[in-house]
Design goal:
The chain has about 100 residues and is mostly helical. It is built from three helices and no strands. The radius of gyration is 34 Å and the shape is elongated.
Length: about 100
């Protein structure tokens, strides 16, 4: 911007403006390139995480299906397990609340 004070003729002002415009265009182009690279990295990372999570979900479903196939006895077993876990949770929370006093 200090070049403005030195400009003597309209032609030199245009040269200064042209140089400044090219410098800013180059700066903008490099910033766009950097942001594009960052966006591609984020996309690749998201795809990798989705692939990993999809694999985990199917593995857990397969393990649960083999552990507890459908049937009356297995539903009874699952209900007993669920009630047992709730009872254990309440017993532990009661014991922890007593220990804090």
């Amino acid at each position: 911007m200090a070049d403005w004070a030195r400009a003597q003729s309209p032609g030199s002002v245009e040269e200064i403006l042209d140089r400044e415009n090219k410098r800013r265009a180059d700066s903008l182009a490099s910033e766009v390139t950097r942001l594009k690279s960052l966006a591609l990295d984020i996309d690749r990372d998201a795809e990798d995480q989705n692939w990993y999570l999809d694999g985990m979900d199917s593995e857990e479903c397969d393990a649960f299906s083999t552990m507890a196939p459908s049937g009356r006895d297995n539903r009874k077993l699952l209900c007993v397990m669920a009630v047992g876990l709730m009872v254990a949770f309440f017993v532990l929370s009661y014991l922890l609340s007593r220990a804090r006093k």
